[in-house]
Design brief:
Number of helices: 3
Helix content: over 70%
Number of strands: 0
Shape: rod-shaped
Low-confidence stretches: 42-47
Structural class: mainly alpha
Radius of gyration: 42 Å
Largest sheet: none
Strand content: under 5%
Order of helices and strands: HHH
Mean pLDDT: 79
Length: 191
């Protein structure tokens, strides 16, 4: 972002220099004409000297004009190059923003999946605790209830499945978070 600001500052400074040089250039021919007119009014005996001075000033002004035109062309070229660089930097910034948004979207999706798996794990754990409590009460009473045993086994199985799903979702979330870091590391290695 600081490079963009620096480029904008340089472009503005170049345009200011160009405008200032054009104003100076525009004012010089008027001065040369005024000097030539005043020289011709002074008398016939000074006319050749005035003509020589006018010609010298015209030559100097023409050289300055050529130099200023060259500077103007150079500044235009530099300005164009800076604008192209600014455009490429903005494109890179837009690309990085899009990549960051995509990564953030992926991370949110992984976190939502992880949250769902953790909710399922909590629910199956609650069911397992209830089934275990029913088995304990049956064991304390000396009664063996086959339905309570089946319910406890089913609850334990559901808890194990929910735990595995939560672990898979957690691994997916970690992988999603690390992918951009690994990609950047690979790009740095290749560079």
């Amino acid at each position: 972002m600081s490079e963009i600001s620096e480029l904008e500052r340089r472009i503005t400074a170049a345009l200011d220099r160009i405008a200032r040089d054009v104003d100076v250039l525009a004012a010089r021919p008027a001065v040369a004409e005024y000097t030539a007119e005043s020289d011709s009014d002074e008398g016939a005996d000074q006319a050749p000297a005035g003509a020589v001075e006018g010609a010298a000033e015209a030559t100097a002004t023409a050289e300055e004009l050529a130099a200023l035109k060259q500077q103007l062309e150079d500044e235009k070229l530099a300005n164009q190059q800076l604008e192209e660089r600014l455009k490429s930097l903005r494109l890179k910034l837009d690309k990085k923003d899009a990549e960051a948004e995509l990564a953030m979207s992926d991370l949110k999706s992984s976190m939502a999946e992880l949250d769902g798996a953790l909710q399922a794990l909590r629910q199956s754990s609650a069911e397992l605790r209830g089934s275990s409590e029913a088995l304990r009460q049956g064991a304390a009473a000396g009664v063996s209830d086959p339905e309570a045993i089946n319910a406890a086994m089913a609850a334990e199985l559901a808890a194990l499945q929910a735990e595995r799903q939560a672990e898979a979702a957690e691994g997916g979330a970690i992988l999603t978070a690390m992918e951009p870091l690994l990609t950047r590391a690979e790009e740095k290695e290749q560079a």
